[in-house]
Amino acid sequence: MGYRIAVVGATGNVGREMLNILAEREFPADEVAAVASSRSVGSRVDFGETGRELTVRNLEHFDFSGWDIALFAAGSGPTKIHAPRAAAAGCIVIDNSSLYRMEPDVPLIVPEVNPDAIDGYAKRRIIANPNCSTAQMVVALKPLHDAATIRRVVVSTYQSVSGAGKAAMDELFEQARAIFVGDRREPARFTKQIAFNVIPHIDVFLGPDSGYDGYTREEWKMAVETQKILDPAIKVTATCVRVPVFVGHSEAITVELERPLSVARAQAILREAPGVMLVDRREDGGYVTPVECVGDYATFVSRVRKDPTVENGLSLWCVSDNLRKGAALNAVQIAELLGRRHLKKG
């Protein structure tokens, strides 16, 4: 007997990707429901490349009783209302929003990094999926932390517009097209022009009371989520930048380790690490870029090198499909882990 799975927010970028990945990975589901807001009710969404379509159901009236797992990709507003309702009905929620990530009684999970933390799901029947930029980073950092203990992380991200939703992708496309014909399109989704530009601003700025004065909420998320998932002793400083790329987040990461770790040993460790694909040739094109990671499950690591400015420092380049490992894939992997450890169906 398989699972009954509800995908909430099924018409958005991440929700559609969740459906694709459930189909691709042949998740043992007897029934899959596509659920969204009332404006999408009755529309059809593809269930992967199976040729099967699902009719979208109304979230407001959806009865979660009898459903095993709900993958939420609906944003914090709807999630705040409907995730507790689903959990109260006996359905386990895996939520992609930021709403529950820092709740102490809600596990924040990246299966390759902290699988044992999922055992705490029963307290609220809610499991949180981390921020897209955090997810790929901790996959790359976990094996290095196990080998030599990371003290400090300095990371700059180069995040694609798909992380801000379909409207953001449309804005990049329309702005780029308008510039080519000498037209001008004012920013709507972003604070400045995104086409042929980079914007060092994702989410809202934080104030002095936050402890991260001058940082954005996205940068704060990378710090506190890494500490919750990997190790509370790790210090993280991040600069998060939106770039004119449709899909795929990139990160330039420097770590300071407690113990020496040679480049060759770090490469060997990363080569064998779960979820990591090492592509690190010191030649033209011997690294991975966002265009090449789209549609892939892996977190790609390239350009591993010694940082000569600090003792026991290493720098690396990390790229991943943010709609997949950064969101939908991680959620499905959490569901798979939950099934193996606790639900045991299929």
Give a description of the structure.
The protein is an alpha/beta fold and 346 residues long. The protein has two domains: 3-130 and 327-343, Rossmann fold (3-Layer(aba) Sandwich); 133-322, 2-Layer Sandwich (Dihydrodipicolinate Reductase, domain 2). The protein contains eight helices and 14 strands. The chain has helices spanning 13-24, 76-88, 132-148, 166-180, 217-229, 263-272, 290-293, 324-343, and strands at residues 3-8, 29-36, 44-46, 53-55, 57-58, 69-72, 92-95, 126-128, 150-159, 235-242, 249-257, 276-278, 299-307, 313-320. A six-stranded parallel β-sheet has the order 5-2-1-6-7-8, sandwiched between helices. Helix 7 links the parallel strand 12 (276-278) and strand 13 (299-307). Helix 1 (13-24) packs across helix 8 (324-343). The longest helix is centred in the C-terminal third of the chain and has 20 residues, at 324-343. The model has no long low-confidence stretch (mean pLDDT 96).
